[in-house]
Specification:
Pfam families: DUF4485. This is DUF4485 domain-containing protein. The protein contains twelve helices and no strands. The protein has 302 residues and is an all-alpha fold. The relative contact order is 0.05.
């Protein structure tokens, strides 16, 4: 079957092209382009669509793994289940998951606790079609919804959650106005970072009851998350204030002990000097330079 008449493959290629710029490295982009060109020449429709679907799923998740992180092999492609089989390809699974390999002793122990069969079968196209027809025939009690407008951001940007870059600041005392402003900025950046504000704005324009209920739920969850961040900030401040008080008390005790030692030593030395002054011979000091040393040093050693 030709590629042009394969609507499923053409649709997958269009979706992959839309998410092409989301890949992190230029090498991944180059490998994706190689795979699309190679799959376009594949004659087997089932094999071609299976590779394209798995490639699309990996791009949506934001990373590529074997075999798509390498250029495609020359010639006809094997079945996808064979090329990702760890027994045929040792690089199909990472090294930190080697405990689940067949030749591992731990794998035989873990195999005793595996469930018999935990695969969930998804409904086919016929069941989806019947469900859509039933939804059309069902009478809704709420008011009709207007058509959903296109989102502000492009589709390729909203497929994954994005982290909004915020400035980092050392957490200080609660009385510090600057630190409080930084924390407020961090809390306000939570909703834009997860695109919940944008999604809530789209839902809020719906007039149906379900849309309003969803909007209230989103607002409740975001407010709860903001309270969690605020409580974490306050607890960190309390711990820091306690640590600062303990450090300040320790420094104060050390300073007072050192001050007492210096004052005591100075007083003792001044007493020694005052005792020496009445018997001190100034004429002897002019003739003998070591007179001062022998006069003062022995009392200081006591």
């Amino acid at each position: 079957m030709s590629v042009k008449s394969d609507c499923v493959f053409v649709d997958l290629v269009d979706q992959i092209s839309a998410l092409y710029e989301c890949l992190p490295s230029p090498e991944d982009k180059k490998n994706v382009q190689y795979w699309i060109n190679h799959l376009s020449g594949e004659l087997d429709k089932i094999k071609r669509n299976e590779y394209a679907q798995n490639l699309f799923d990996l791009i949506v998740n934001g990373f590529l793994k074997y075999p798509f992180n390498q250029p495609p092999p020359a010639g006809r492609l094997p079945d996808y289940c064979d090329i990702v089989n760890p027994r045929l390809n040792p690089f199909a699974i990472p090294k930190n998951e080697a405990v689940f390999r067949r030749d591992s002793e731990d794998s035989r122990i873990l195999s005793r606790f595996k469930p018999p069969n935990c695969f969930i079968r998804q409904p086919g196209k016929r069941i989806f079609k019947e469900m859509r027809e039933k939804c059309k025939q069902a009478k809704s009690t709420c008011s009709p919804c207007p058509p959903l407008c296109e989102p502000i951001n492009n589709c390729k940007e909203v497929t994954r959650l994005r982290i909004c870059p915020t400035s980092t600041v050392t957490v200080g005392c609660p009385e510090d106005i600057k630190n409080r402003e930084e924390v407020e900025k961090l809390i306000d950046a939570i909703c834009p970072a997860t695109l919940l504000d944008e999604f809530a704005a789209q839902v809020a324009r719906f007039t149906c009851d379900k849309g309003q209920e969803m909007f209230r739920f989103i607002s409740k969850e975001t407010n709860y998350f903001r309270k969690i961040v605020q409580s974490v900030f306050e607890s960190l401040n309390k711990d820091m204030i306690k640590a600062l008080d303990e450090e300040q008390a320790r420094v104060k005790d050390n300073y007072e002990a050192w001050e007492r030692f210096v004052l005591t030593k100075t007083k003792n030395e001044m007493d020694v000097i005052l005792d020496i002054i009445p018997d001190f011979n100034w004429d002897e000091m002019k003739n003998n330079r070591s007179y001062l040393w022998f006069k003062i040093y022995p009392p200081f050693r006591k």
